[in-house]
Design goal:
58% helix; 0% strand
Length: 221
């Protein structure tokens, strides 16, 4: 708030309004979304690998006991910790590449969308695995996230009515079509329940998360 002194004068010339260059704003939006996607992909890799190194070399693998233990209320917290844990480096590596790719692609829609998809996948995959994973077993690994992210990317275009997203989803579905066997009980020692319910979580997210985060441009004075 501005005040004047008695007998004083005010400057009646208003400041020029701020403007946003549409071209600059569009470029800023693209750069911002790419940066968001890259940061989420990098964050996923860093967290997964740091946790695995700590588990392997500090705790001697003991953290792997914090997976999802179906129908065991003492192991229900594994719903949130299981995606961070892996049996060995091969297990981790197999989830790292597709996980980073899907993180980046979802991140292009913004952090909010990524968090919503991820939380939906973790909850649906976790609860489904806890209920139907089989007593006496323990489920770990980020593959439930990988399946959820992929399922979301495959179906979201249909619900968003976006031809670009439909085309991307079709390409990803074709490229990763081999993963469909992971939702069936055909491989011993593989948590097909985590894969199945992870995919269902991703489909649910695709049906309900239909908008991107807004990215604001910078104003020019």
């Amino acid at each position: 708030m501005t005040s004047g002194t008695p007998g004083g004068t005010f400057n009646h010339h208003a400041a020029a309004p701020s403007t946003v260059n549409r071209g600059d704003s569009k470029n800023y939006t693209k750069r911002g979304r790419v940066a968001t996607g890259l940061s989420l992909a990098a964050g996923f890799l860093i967290v997964e690998w740091v946790v695995h190194f700590i588990n392997a070399f500090v705790f001697g693998g003991a953290l792997s006991n914090y997976g999802i233990r179906p129908l065991d209320f003492n192991g229900i917290w594994g719903i949130f910790t299981a995606p961070l844990l892996h049996a060995n480096f091969e297990h981790l590596a197999s989830n790292s590449v597709p996980g980073a790719i899907f993180c980046f692609l979802i991140g292009l829609s913004g952090r909010k969308a990524w968090w919503q998809v991820t939380i939906a996948t973790v909850l649906v995959a976790g609860v489904g695995t806890w209920l139907f994973g089989g007593p006496g077993t323990s489920h770990i690994g980020a593959s439930s996230l990988v399946y959820g992210w992929l399922a979301y990317l495959v179906v979201r275009g249909v619900f968003n009515r976006s031809l670009l997203q439909i085309a991307l989803g079709a390409a990803l579905g074709f490229a990763y079509s081999g993963l469909v066997w992971g939702v069936l009980p055909v491989y011993e020692g593989v948590s097909w329940q985590g894969h199945l319910f992870g995919a269902l979580g991703g489909i649910l997210a695709g049906m309900t998360i239909t908008s991107d985060d807004p990215v604001k441009g910078t104003a020019k004075q």
